[in-house]
Amino acid sequence: MAAQAGGARSGWPSMRKYADMFSAMGTEPRLRIMQMLLSAHPQGLVVGELQGELEIPNSTLSHHLDKLKNEDLVHVQRESTFLRYTANTEALQELLRFLYSECCTRNKALQPQDIVEICK
Questions:
Q1: 53 near 36, Cβ under 8 Å?
Q2: Which among 7, 20, 53, 102 counts the fewest CB atoms within 10 Å?
Q3: Tell me: the pLDDT tens digits for 73-120?
Q4: Whole-number Å distance between alpha carbons of 111 and 100
Q5: Domain count of the chain?
Q6: Which SS3 state, helix, strand or coil, does residue 88 take?
Q7: How far apart are CA 20 and CA 68, in angstroms?
Q8: Rounded CA gap, 72 and 74, in Å?
Q9: Which helix (H) or strand (E) holds 76?
Q10: What is the DSSP letter of 84?
Q11: What domain range is 70 assigned to?
Q12: Do residues 85 and 65 make contact, with C-beta atoms less than 8 angstroms apart?
């Protein structure tokens, strides 16, 4: 009920959705996975490439990738015997729009030009 009321008050369809997306990226390995996938965009990376860079066990990597996939932050495509992961840039743009609207338009905590400067 509280999550629904918070979402309704803020004008966003589901505050819980955004919280879950942030939570999914809230560990160092998952944040590194997202960084690697964004660096390899739009081709993405196969699991072996991710594992070689992260140096974590396959079962642990699989758990992290599943968490990101469950929150729609990554897409997965089978290529023969390989799984190729790509960052879901549409979901990330939605998440950034949410943050941007809260910090830069509604309460003016940051100026839009400051955000643009950070991204350069």
A1: yes
A2: 53
A3: 999 999 999 999 999 999 999 988 888 776 666 666 666 666 666 565
A4: 10
A5: 1
A6: coil
A7: 10
A8: 6
A9: strand 74-79
A10: E
A11: 2-119
A12: yes
